Recover the amino acids of this structure.
């Protein structure tokens, strides 16, 4: 359906986000584009509907090369929907007009037909009550759902999502993602640039990992997330799912650590209650026990989340004298945490750690929906 | 007791001596004190060597000099003796120094155009003829020595026009030479020209413009004849002047001690009568307001169209187009309004016969157009990139995008500025008097020059400006509300649609 050949984009400041991209998008594909920041994910997406003009290369849509001069881009764009990070609803129009007007202006529908279609879509995104609201009266999540409805009203052959949840409060990410997930199930062709790995994995049937100015590795979600073949992909996936701290000396910023932990949890959609448990364990073991009793503490704490099995784990390695954490701890909170059936606690010694850490504690936090 | 009496006596004596000495003061004794003089009449040259340290204060209208003198802003002012006669009639407290500063001779300046040579010969002949047959003496007596500001009038009819029309620049607010009486021009200069035109088969068209604009206007050929030009060496170098058509002494006016105190309310009623009722002068105010409104509306309509049109051509960021536009914005916005109007009137349209009224309309349309371009740019740039991108991605064409997405939002940003610009425009139009347009301000000047009363004329003018401003800004405000998308009713949004329950 869409074929991209040797696509290259250079910006005026001489950065080259896309060096040579080749890609075929088939009907029914749901493609998630992931990768580190600044690797041209959004640029690639924006080139597909020529919002950003490529420097060279061809984009062939239904047999027509849209990079050619004289191609009626407005006609091509009517076949491609786009959902933006910043929603971009028309600020002077009500919700219903935002969805109706493009249909009337661009598709030549009657006002009644446009209205009927708009109402149908509004109810499908769960916002029938907001017909006469203006965009600035809505939350980010609501605006993005309206923006998706506006795009759907044009009946596009493909929808391009440019980081649709990046500008949203964590509490609203879910509502937008579930609308997109529902859409994916209807067999619509979609291409989604996202930083939400869990979402990418669940919604897509193809994952593009972008780096080095192109598509670095491509595969099914299982291939990319569980068995990445190439170096950078592996590093990226690894870094995403774990978080490390080194606690050395007594001046340690607990606040900053907790904040980072919070961000990590939000990104991976880990339940806040479970994260609070981990945070408590981390603080009690490292700060209140080991660092408190040791003269020269040196601890490495790693937080990991495995999608497979839904396991949140905390690994702690420390140098020096062994502490009987479980025995010496006088925190009641920590004691009750250990007593929970969903918490697993193990201690061990490390024989040949290259950096000389000798003691090790592993904790796992499972989750049971109540 | 004796001492006190002595002091009082001395004071009374000193006062008496001072009072009787007022007119006996020498001109030289005013050295260093401010002295008023009418702009462009050059009377200051007559006494300059006697008062080398004096800073002269220049006034456009004689009335303003009287006000300045009575309020103590100047110590004396210079005026032709004829003019003083009128002043004295209205302000008995004025006195004239015994020492005569000098005499002035007035001639006419002939426009630099194809009629110049013919007119010069004809006018010089006519001046000689008038001197010979006693017409000059008659005019001098009728208008100057025996002037009656209320009843004196002249015949401004009876022209055959067989040799065409001639345009004549007169001050218009300058008794007894040119002034408006009963809604018609009258005065020595007007009478003289009318007699000339009847004798030589012309039809005169009079333009009332400020003194300082007469000579420059005539020299560019905009007018055929400029009246009442005081003869000086410098003027003779550039302008083509006729022979002298009258000579009269210049006097130095100071404040005497005699104040005639009319009762406050009586004075007010009298002033009101003079300003509005006598000669139906209120009609002049109405006409002046009409001219101000006409210029303002024309400028708004054409300025908006012009500004919008140019903005449409340059909005996509054409570099050359934007550079040219920026240059004109810089040029037009950077110039004082009155200068722009005078350049348009005397230079750009100098050779054309376009009236001051239309030149003003063009000038203000240009200025307003520049403001509109600025406003549109501000409004356009206030719209986020996202609005452009979203409409483009949906498939809107450039024109659809501009009119359906960008403009309705930009309008809400620039209409409040538009309202302010309209107010500024109305106020700015008050300078059109410089190019012979009888607008509200100029009318107020003309009436004041007749009544020698400032209060009612100025108040009336201010009130009329406020009324015009209020009405126009109200209209803009209504438009603003009318097109505010957020003020539409739900019924209007879904007009003609069968709604879902």
């Amino acid at each position: 359906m869409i074929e991209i050949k040797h696509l290259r984009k250079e910006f005026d400041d001489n950065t080259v986000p896309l060096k040579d991209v080749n890609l075929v998008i088939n009907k029914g594909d749901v493609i998630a584009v992931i990768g580190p920041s600044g690797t041209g994910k959004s640029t690639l997406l924006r080139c597909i509907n020529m919002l950003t003009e490529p420097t060279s290369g061809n984009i062939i849509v239904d047999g027509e090369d849209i990079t050619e001069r004289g191609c009626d881009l407005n006609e091509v764009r009517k076949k491609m929907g786009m959902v933006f990070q910043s929603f971009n609803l028309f600020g002077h129009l009500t919700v219903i007009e935002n969805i109706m007007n493009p249909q009337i202006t661009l598709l030549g529908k009657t006002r009644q037909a446009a209205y009927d279609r708009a109402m149908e879509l509004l109810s499908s995104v769960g916002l029938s009550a907001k017909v006469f609201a203006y965009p600035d009266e809505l939350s980010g999540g609501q605006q993005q759902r309206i923006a998706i409805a506006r795009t759907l009203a044009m009946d596009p052959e493909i929808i391009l999502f440019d980081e649709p949840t990046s500008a949203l409060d964590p509490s609203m990410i879910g509502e937008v993602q579930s609308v997109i997930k529902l859409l994916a199930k209807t067999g619509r062709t979609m291409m989604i640039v996202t930083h939400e790995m869990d979402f990418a994995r669940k919604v897509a049937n193809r994952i593009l990992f972008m780096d080095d100015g192109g598509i670095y590795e491509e595969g099914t979600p299982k291939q990319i997330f569980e068995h990445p073949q190439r170096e950078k992909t592996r590093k990226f996936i690894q870094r995403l799912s774990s978080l490390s701290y080194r606690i050395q000396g007594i001046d340690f910023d607990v606040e900053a650590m907790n904040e980072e932990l919070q961000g990590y949890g939000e990104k991976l959609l880990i339940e806040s209650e479970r994260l609070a448990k981990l945070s408590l364990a981390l603080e009690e073991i490292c700060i209140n026990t080991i660092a408190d009793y040791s003269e020269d503490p040196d601890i490495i704490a790693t937080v990991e989340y495995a999608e497979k099995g839904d396991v949140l784990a905390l690994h702690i390695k420390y140098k020096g004298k062994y502490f009987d954490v479980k025995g010496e701890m006088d925190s009641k909170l920590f004691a009750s945490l250990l007593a929970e059936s969903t918490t697993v606690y193990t201690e061990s010694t490390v024989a040949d750690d290259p950096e000389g850490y000798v003691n090790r504690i592993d904790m796992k936090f499972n989750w049971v929906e109540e | 007791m004796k001492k006190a009496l002595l002091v009082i006596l001395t004071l009374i004596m000193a006062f008496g001596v001072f009072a009787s000495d007022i007119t006996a003061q020498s001109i030289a004794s005013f050295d260093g004190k401010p002295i008023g003089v009418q702009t462009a009449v050059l009377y200051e040259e007559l006494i300059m060597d006697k008062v080398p340290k004096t800073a002269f204060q220049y006034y456009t209208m004689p009335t303003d000099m009287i006000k300045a003198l009575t309020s103590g802003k100047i110590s004396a002012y210079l005026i032709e003796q004829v003019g003083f006669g009128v002043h004295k009639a209205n302000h008995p407290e004025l006195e004239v120094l015994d020492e005569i500063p000098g005499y002035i001779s007035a001639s006419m300046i002939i426009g630099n155009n194809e009629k110049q040579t013919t007119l010069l010969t004809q006018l010089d002949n006519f001046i000689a003829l008038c001197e010979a047959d006693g017409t000059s003496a008659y005019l001098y007596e009728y208008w100057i020595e025996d002037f009656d500001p209320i009843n004196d009038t002249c015949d401004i009819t009876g022209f055959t026009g067989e040799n065409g029309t001639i345009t004549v620049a007169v001050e218009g607010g300058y008794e007894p030479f040119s002034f408006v009486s009963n809604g018609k021009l009258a005065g020595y200069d007007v009478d003289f020209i009318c007699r000339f035109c009847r004798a030589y088969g012309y039809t005169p068209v009079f333009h009332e413009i400020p003194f300082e604009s007469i000579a420059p206007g005539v020299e560019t050929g905009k007018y055929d004849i400029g009246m009442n030009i005081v003869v000086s060496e410098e003027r003779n170098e550039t302008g083509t002047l006729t022979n002298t058509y009258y000579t009269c002494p210049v006097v130095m006016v100071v404040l005497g001690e005699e104040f005639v105190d009319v009762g406050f309310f009586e004075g007010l009623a009298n002033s009101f009568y003079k300003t509005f009722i006598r000669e139906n002068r209120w009609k002049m105010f109405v006409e002046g307001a009409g001219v101000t409104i006409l210029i303002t509306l024309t400028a708004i309509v054409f300025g908006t169209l012009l500004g919008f049109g140019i903005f449409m051509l340059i909005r996509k960021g054409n570099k050359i187009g934007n550079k040219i536009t920026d240059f004109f914005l810089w040029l037009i916005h950077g110039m004082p309004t009155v200068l722009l109007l005078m350049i348009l009137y005397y230079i750009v349209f100098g050779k054309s016969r376009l009236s001051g009224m239309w030149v003003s309309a063009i000038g203000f349309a240009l200025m307003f157009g520049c403001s509109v371009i600025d406003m549109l740019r501000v409004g356009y740039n206030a719209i986020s990139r996202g609005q452009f991108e979203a409409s483009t991605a949906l498939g809107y064409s450039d024109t659809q995008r501009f009119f359906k997405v960008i403009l309705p939002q930009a309008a809400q940003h620039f209409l409040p500025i538009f309202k302010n610009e309209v107010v500024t425009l109305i106020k700015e139009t008050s300078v059109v008097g410089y190019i012979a347009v009888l607008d509200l301000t100029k009318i107020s000047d003309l009436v004041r020059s007749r009544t020698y009363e400032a209060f009612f004329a100025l108040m009336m003018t201010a009130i009329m400006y406020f009324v015009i401003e209020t009405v126009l800004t109200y209209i803009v405000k209504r438009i603003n509300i009318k097109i505010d998308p957020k003020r539409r009713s739900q019924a209007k949004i879904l007009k003609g649609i069968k709604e879902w329950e």
